[in-house]
Design a protein that fits this description.
heterotrimer; A mainly alpha (about 450); B alpha/beta (about 1000); C alpha+beta (about 180); A: about 450 residues; mainly alpha; Formate dehydrogenase/DMSO reductase fold; C: about 180 residues; alpha+beta; Alpha-Beta Plaits; elongated
């Protein structure tokens, strides 16, 4: 690239160039396709075997759960919800960053998203899959889970549409469907690229079918772009609503510590926070292993760190606000629920949450830390831990001490709770690694679209 | 008035010890507790039951002369004509326990007895039951019962036994019989026959819990062998000294019934009795007391002596003063005794002094005199002859042990007494080396059966004919509900077998009743008791001159202790769960948590906080207790539990535990080997406490299953203060005097919190549903009379097929009992007051559980019931989470999958068994409601108040629970709900519960109120 | 050996700028059945090719309306007509509680409409297309830009069209057969 073009870049990129190094259309194609076309690196293989074995653990424990009953968990009366629900909320939250990056940033014409949106979306889908596992298995009688769907049946019975759990089913289900569509639509042109580069017949066949006969016709591009815009437009309110609806599981109940109106925005902020943390956790090793530093640049990481800083602080504000409202409400049960979180038997969990979600992100005020990859990686992992504990604190500490002191009890997770948590990560990473292996992890056509030479007038601009 | 207000605010509430301690102490003490049940009563026999009884008696008329009703265990071979499949029959019979017997109505489904309720007109049960009576039905279906006679541990057929079993010949020399006391005329008849035929034999009677001291004490004064019956409805002032007349007393139903009569408050004008309680343990009675003073067991002489003297000073001049060198009681107690004495005298002839059975006889004599001088005798206390009873006799028991030790017993007949459990520690040698032949007539393969040459299985009382007497003399017939499940025989059959003839127990009973016409006999069978015999035992006691009783006073004088000692004392009590151990294999009773400690499945060594500190003990530590009994040293090991309100340096030990049984079935979730500790070895036979116990702490820990604040939760001040703040809302109470000035005090809390007085004024997003069409079911529970006995929860368990989950699951916080008895301490840890609150599903009109269920498995029906559709439930547990009262119970495992078939026979066929993964809870006995509705429909009439009686309601001897249609303004429940002191729990949540509570009242003596708030006592002369 | 039918002519252009020009002049020349093929959407091509705005927006709108009304209808019918049952003493039709699912189904309807609409307008899926016969055309998804003029265009004439494409700077002119 010539200096002039490099300068021209500045005109529509605010900071560092979106794509570094000497890239043109075909180099982009080669770079990204080669990942799929060539043998996977050793790191991938090891990672895959590891996460697959975790997946097996999950399957094993689910089998045992269904055989023996929910008694194998640490649940009791009053703590009717344990790890299962915590994991569910956690994983749904993780998903959000994907949609946010691909949809919201798309609407805001944030061109830098193109480098990360593809696998952020993939991450969304796999996270939602993990999430959907838990409500499925946490119920006492898994084999009648279908009672929850409005299926006409001989009993003439219908689900109760007033129940937040049913709202969840619809919201998360829809969220999964829409994210899948959005992701797939985005994939079509790149699948076509893979089809056209495919050497073996099988590959050509498979990618050919998947790409649905895409021939980069501009008449298609026209509909395609609008449809994509529409999907983005729909996903945006959806992503904001999903975690709000998940939060109603708690907000709609009358349990002190759950029954609070701040939950929807606070859950969404938390979701975005954790989601970006997870993107970071995935992107940093990925760009290293596949040498994509030039495409997923420090600039990208820096931007994500900023978002984490913002959302982290929002979450922190929410924590503070909860306490204020609890005190201000003058409701003894409410205020106790929160004091109990901070100094009660679950204080340890509460302070893990605070330090991971509120204190650690404050590091990102400093540009040097924001741009140091190791710091970012570690911080992102802490953020994930913190957000898991946030859900733990909300679910368990509130349940374990509600209105009548006589029924207070302490919840201790059983080994199965823990195995299933670990296993769910196995599920997530197995899917994700398969995605890296067989699908273009970066939206090639979008990257090309933001290269300088993609602009017909780029030479005239001055 | 303001001053009283202060008292109110000064009361501090807390739930358990750690709440009261700063965090450091907390490390060292963790106390748990939990709720127990209530007792309940039905006013009148429902029309339906009456009809069924008539039906039953008709049928009987046709079947008299054979075991009846002739019924086979399902399925039928040939169905008796009085059985309509699906319709339950009700038969009257009798359960005897100790010297008393309770008339009961047994519900029978297709020949399976399934549920027990009290017999309305029987004076000893008055329509209610104790938890023991309630649970006794489970013993019938006990899968571990001995199933056929055993000879040298080889089973023998019954006919074989009857033909070849002739152990006794000659005059019976070298023969000894050991039995429990009994009140059955037939058994008595055979007993006399036996003693006549085998004149050289010795028959010994022993009860772990016996009235012997009482009888002999009263005999000393009155020259008659009598037992007192208290009429609390006729008394304003009640003093209980070590007496648990509301709890583990043999006549507790009568006591509760009469007690609650003078305890129920409807209007400002109603009077309420005042209960003073002086005890060294902590009993249900103590928890009900308006003034409870703890004393060490070795101080009871001093207390009664001082009371005697104070009474003498204050007006009972006939009393003889006891010379007390030096009072061991502090100012507080001194004042208490003075106030108490004045109060008693002020209420002459309207007071009662009741003292514990186990206290030494001279004290019983003295209390008799006191009651006499207070003009209570023959008024509030009546006396009833015990001549027809075969009573426990300690001296002869001791002799028997000696005889056995000295090898003078060749043939030992043990009739349903676990000899080894009770006495093995008193034997010099293995019993098999001391006695040639041991014949054991019992129901279980316990330690005694192991060493006996012959083992003859005992029929359950629902399997055999018999008869029984109550203390007041009411005679009744025990008729079988089912023919024996196993090859067992009744005690009467066994005795006649010993006498050499094989006569059926029916004929034996007939023979005893030969004096009565067969019509009377039939009528008695039908009614369950002989009307003419009611209080036939009562004897009026002529006045006894105090002078003639000199040596009572002198004996007492000898026993006075002159200074407060602090040597360790072990105080032995009868278990609230196993009684004297006979219910060791009754899992309903085993799992129902103890009223006071809230511990289930086991017994523990209860100690006071200070003692725990002194010996640096904390909950679940295992301690070793040593005691020297006439030269020999014995020791036991038991886990420690700290309980408030206990005297210091006193260890409370529950007897009856530790009975090892050999079991046939092994159930997955129930650990049969959890037996508790047998504490008898360190107990001197015949005394209820042992002095000079040596306590040493072991390094071992024993996990105890406690159902309130599990696992020593809320150790922190935080929780303590919170509970302090919450209880005024949860349990609303007032001093009776307060109430007279401010009769809607229950609203004080709401008003302080700006909660509107009427539910209808609570803000809501939705219009409230219209429940104006009756019947609308509702319940009311009177906290003022609930003693926290477990009868209601056991009744519920029996009626609703609630599974037993075993100790581990209880420790995991998964107990299934639908009725949770919340128990709270209040005031200072040394002398707490108590508050009890049974909580089952409150059937809220705006039920929070319903809206969150995704599949509409829990919904409201048009009669206001919060229903559970088990088949629809998928088990999200969201409803339980959203229930502010936490009354929902979840089947975490498939608890019932290995219930033995025979135990399944105890199930109520009208109630489904819940499968794993399903939520369950109180249904207001919906099956009874529909049964009543169908009956009413068939009879072409409207439902009347009282047609529906729920299981807990009928069981409650305190009449604490009322149930019915809240639309019908005249129904009992509506009237209860209309009272000013009726309140709904957590009203501000706008759940509109259908179960409401009547506030608790206390009736402290004005002069003692200050003490209760343990402020400085200003002595005024 | 049946005579092969012609689909059209394919011409390659070097970059976005030239494809833009080419499209312009093809339009001016008067061709209708022509198309541009670019590895990524090139901005300005719409006008260059004289395309009208896509109608997908309306399809999506329709989908949203269907989803929302269907959802609300289902909840109303099932909870107040088919299976009316008292829950927490709330009205059978407690619309406040039903809004959430209504909203979610609106989004779902819209999303599927967007996908199906796009596929329909693009006549997708289709596994094969004559253009795939050209080896060179595979670059279309990599870095090459093409203009194709179809045989069925009234102005189509094998030689004239070929020359015309050359004249506007088309490289590797290719005749594509069906």
């Amino acid at each position: 690239m010539t200096d002039t073009t490099a300068n021209k870049l500045q005109t529509y990129v605010d900071e560092a160039p979106l794509v570094e190094g000497d890239h043109n259309f075909s180099t982009i194609t080669d770079k990204i396709c080669s990942i799929v076309e060539s043998k996977p690196p050793r790191g991938w293989l090891i990672a895959f075997l590891f996460s697959f074995s975790l997946l097996l653990i999950l399957q094993g424990s689910i089998g045992y759960l269904i055989w023996e009953g929910t008694g194998i968990w640490g649940l009791n009366n009053p703590v009717g919800w344990g790890f299962a629900i915590v994991n569910f909320v956690f994983w749904v939250g993780i998903g959000h960053a994907g949609t946010l990056i691909s949809a919201v940033l798309y609407l805001f014409r944030q061109k830098w998203r193109t480098a990360i949106n593809r696998f952020a979306e993939a991450m969304t889908i796999f996270a939602v899959i993990c999430a959907l596992v838990f409500p499925g298995i946490h119920i006492g009688r898994v084999w009648v889970a279908y009672f929850m769907f409005p299926i006409p049946n001989q009993m003439g019975m219908w689900p109760n549409f007033r129940s937040p759990l049913l709202w969840d089913i619809f919201a998360v289900g829809t969220y999964f469907a829409v994210s899948l569509l959005f992701w797939y639509v985005g994939l079509i042109p790149d699948l076509a690229t893979l089809r056209d580069r495919a050497k073996s017949k099988v590959k050509r066949l498979v990618y050919g079918i998947l790409s649905m006969g895409w021939r980069s016709s501009h008449r298609h591009w026209q509909n395609y772009e609008l449809a994509y815009l529409m999907l983005a437009g729909l996903s945006t309110p959806l992503v904001l609503s999903v975690h709000s609806i998940v939060s109603t599981d708690f907000a709609v109940s009358l349990l002190p510590g759950w029954h609070t109106t701040i939950f929807p925005p606070y859950f969404v902020a938390g979701a975005i926070f954790s989601g970006f943390a997870m993107v970071m956790t995935l992107a940093i090793p990925a760009r290293k292993i596949y040498g994509l530093e030039s495409i997923i640049t420090i600039g990208h990481l820096d931007k994500m760190a900023k978002i984490m800083l913002v959302t982290g602080s929002m979450v922190g504000y929410a924590y503070a606000m909860e306490f204020f409202i609890a005190w201000y409400s003058g409701n003894t049960y409410e205020s106790f629920a929160f004091v109990n979180r901070a100094v009660g038997p679950y204080a340890w969990a509460y302070w893990i949450m605070i330090s991971c979600n509120v204190i650690i992100p404050q590091l990102f005020w400093s540009k040097t830390l924001r741009t140091s990859v190791p710091v970012l990686f570690i911080a992102s992992i802490f953020a994930n831990i913190g957000m898991w504990f946030e859900r733990f604190v909300i679910v368990i500490s509130s349940l374990s001490r509600d209105y009548l002191p006589s029924s207070w009890d302490y919840y201790t997770p059983s080994i199965w709770d823990i195995l299933m948590l670990i296993g769910s990560f196995g599920l997530f990473f197995t899917f994700f690694l398969l995605f890296l292996r067989f699908l273009p992890m970066i939206a090639m056509f979008e990257i090309k679209g933001i290269l300088p030479e993609a602009d017909p007038h780029h030479e005239e601009v001055h | 008035m303001p001053q009283i207000k202060n008292n109110k605010t000064e009361k501090t509430y807390w739930r358990s010890l750690q709440d009261k301690m700063d965090s450091k102490e907390i490390e060292s003490f963790i106390v748990n507790e939990f709720p127990a049940g209530t007792i309940e009563v039905s006013e009148t026999m429902t029309r339906k039951k009456f009809l069924s009884l008539m039906g039953a008696s008709m049928a009987m008329a046709g079947l008299v002369g054979c075991r009846k009703p002739i019924q086979k265990i399902l399925p039928y071979v040939n169905a008796p004509e009085d059985i309509i499949p699906g319709i339950s029959n009700y038969y009257a019979t009798t359960m005897s326990m100790g010297l008393n017997s309770f008339g009961i109505i047994v519900e029978s489904h297709e020949g399976r007895p399934t549920h027990i309720e009290g017999n309305q007109d029987h004076p000893a049960s008055k329509g209610s039951v104790t938890s023991y009576v309630q649970a006794s039905i489970l013993d019938l279906y006990d899968p571990d019962r001995l199933k056929s006679p055993m000879h040298n541990s080889k089973s023998v057929s019954l006919t074989n036994l009857k033909n070849n079993f002739t152990p006794l010949t000659g005059d019976g020399s070298g023969v000894a019989v050991l039995s429990g006391s009994f009140n059955s005329p037939t058994t008595k008849r055979l007993y006399d026959k036996f003693n006549k035929k085998f004149s050289k034999s010795t028959w010994t009677t022993f009860d772990l819990k016996s009235q012997e001291n009482q009888i002999s004490g009263l005999a000393y004064s009155t020259k008659k062998e009598v037992l007192p019956i208290y009429h609390f409805d006729k008394s304003n002032i009640i003093l209980s000294i070590e007496s648990d007349f509301l709890g583990n007393d043999q006549n507790s139903i009568h006591n509760q019934k009469t007690f609650s009569k003078s305890r129920k408050i409807k209007t400002k004008k109603d009077k309420m009795n005042r209960l003073y309680c002086v005890e060294s343990t902590l009993t249900n009675t103590g928890m009900m007391a308006d003034h409870r003073y703890k004393i060490r067991p070795d101080e009871v002489y001093n207390f009664i002596a001082e009371l005697n003297n104070t009474l003498a000073q204050n007006g009972l001049y006939k009393l003889k003063k006891i010379n007390i060198k030096k009072s061991i009681f502090d100012k507080k107690y001194q004042k208490f005794i003075k106030v108490l004495a004045r109060d008693l005298i002020k209420n002459k002839s309207k007071s009662i002094i009741a003292i514990g059975d186990e206290l030494p006889s001279e004290l019983h004599s003295l209390v008799f005199i006191l009651n006499q001088e207070l003009k209570n005798n023959n008024n509030s206390v009546t006396y009833h002859s015990t001549d027809d009873f075969v009573k426990s006799d300690l001296e002869s028991t001791k002799k028997l042990i000696e005889k056995i030790n000295s090898g003078n017993v060749d043939d030992l007949f043990i009739l349903d007494v676990d000899f080894i459990h009770l006495f093995s520690h008193l034997l010099n040698d293995k019993i098999t080396n001391l006695v040639k032949n041991i014949y054991y007539f019992g129901s279980h393969k316990d330690l005694t059966s192991k060493i006996s040459t012959w083992m003859i299985p005992k029929s359950h009382y629902l399997e055999a004919w018999g008869d029984a007497k109550s203390i007041d003399g009411t005679t009744s017939i025990v008729q079988p509900l089912i023919s024996p499940l196993y090859n067992s025989i009744s005690i009467n059959e066994f005795l006649s077998l010993l006498l050499g003839n094989d006569i059926s127990d029916y004929d034996l009973v007939k023979e005893t009743w030969s004096s009565k016409s067969s019509l009377v006999f039939k009528k008695t069978i039908h009614d369950g008791y002989l009307k003419s015999s009611i209080s036939s035992n009562s004897v009026s006691i002529p006045r006894v001159s105090v002078e003639s009783q000199q040596n009572i006073f002198s004996t007492i004088e000898e026993h006075l202790s002159n200074k407060k000692t602090n040597n360790l004392i072990a105080r032995f009590t009868i278990s609230n769960q196993l009684y004297d151990g006979r219910y060791t294999n009754n899992y309903w009773l085993r799992e129902a948590p103890d009223t006071i400690t809230k511990i289930s499945w086991e017994n523990v060594a209860l100690i006071s906080i200070k003692t725990a500190k002194d010996y640096s003990l904390k909950n679940s530590d295992i301690i070793e207790l040593k005691s020297k009994i006439n030269g020999k040293e014995f020791k036991i090991e038991a886990p420690v539990w700290v309980l408030p309100g206990l005297p210091n340096d006193t260890i409370i030990l529950e007897m009856g535990y530790g009975r090892e049984l050999e079991r046939d079935v092994d159930r997955n979730y129930i650990d049969e080997d959890i037996l508790g500790v047998n504490v008898l070895p360190i107990k001197e036979i015949g005394s209820y406490y042992s002095n000079n116990i040596l306590l040493s702490k072991t390094q071992k820990i024993h996990k105890v299953a406690c159902t309130q604040d599990h696992h020593g939760l809320d150790l922190e001040k935080l929780a303590a203060n919170e509970i302090e703040g919450r209880l005024p809302e949860i349990i609303r109470e007032s001093n009776i005097e307060d109430y007279r000035l401010n009769d809607d005090f229950v609203l004080d809390y709401d008003r302080k919190k700006h909660i509107p007085d009427n539910d209808s004024d609570l803000p809501s997003m939705y219009p409230s549903h219209d429940y104006s069409k009756g019947p609308q079911w509702g319940m009311n529970i009177d906290l003022n009379v609930c003693t926290g006995c477990n009868a209601c929860s056991i009744a519920c368990q029996s009626e609703n097929n609630i599974p037993v989950v075993g100790k581990q699951q209880v420790m995991d916080g998964r107990e299934m009992s639908w009725i949770r008895m919340d128990r709270y301490f209040k005031g200072d840890v040394e002398n707490p007051e108590f508050a009890l609150q049974p909580v089952a599903c409150l059937h809220c009109e705006n039920a929070p559980c319903e809206q969150v269920c995704p599949v509409a498995a829990t919904t409201h029906d048009k009669e206001g019931l919060n229903g559970m559709a088990y088949n629809r439930c998928i088990g999200t547990r969201y409803c339980a989470n959203n229930c502010p009262y936490k009354v929902r119970r979840f089947n975490f495992y498939n608890y019932t999958y290995d219930t033995p078939e025979v135990v399944q026979m105890a199930n109520n066929p009208d109630v489904s068994i819940r499968f794993r993964g399903v939520m369950e809870k109180c249904t207001f006995c919906v099956q009874r409601i529909s049964e009543a509705k169908i009956t009413a429909k068939n009879e072409k009439r409207e439902l009347a108040d009282g047609d529906v009686k729920v299981a807990c309601q009928t069981a409650c001897a305190m009449d604490a629970i009322t149930f019915g249609d809240i639309i019908d303004k005249n129904s009992k429940v509506s009237q209860a709900k209309s009272l000013n002191h009726d309140y709904s729990l957590l009203k501000e949540l706008n759940t509109k519960p259908r179960t409401t509570y009547l506030a608790k009242f206390r009736n402290p003596h004005p002069d003692l109120v200050k003490d209760n708030n343990n402020k400085e006592i200003i002595e005024h002369h | 050996m049946t005579p092969k039918l012609i689909y059209g002519i394919l011409a390659e252009f070097k970059d976005t700028k030239s494809i833009l020009k080419a499209a312009e002049s093809v339009k001016i020349e008067g061709y209708i059945n022509f198309d541009c093929h670019t590895p990524f959407p090139v901005h300005g091509l719409d006008d260059a090719m004289g395309l009208k705005r896509s109608i997908i927006g309306y399809i999506v709108g329709f989908g949203c309306v269907m989803g929302a009304s269907g959802g609300l209808l289902l909840q109303w019918w099932s909870s107040s007509i088919e299976f009316p049952i008292v829950i927490s003493g709330k009205p059978f039709f407690s619309w406040q509680a039903y809004m959430i699912i209504t909203f979610v189904l609106m989004i779902l309807g819209g999303a599927f409409a967007a996908l199906i609409g796009m596929f329909h307008l693009n006549r997708m899926p289709a596994y094969h297309h004559p253009l795939f016969n050209s080896k060179n055309f595979q670059k279309a998804t990599d870095d090459a830009f093409f203009v194709s003029i179809e045989f069925k265009d009234p102005m189509f004439d094998l030689d004239d069209t070929k020359n015309f494409l050359v004249s506007i700077g088309g490289k590797n002119i290719e005749v594509i057969e069906e």
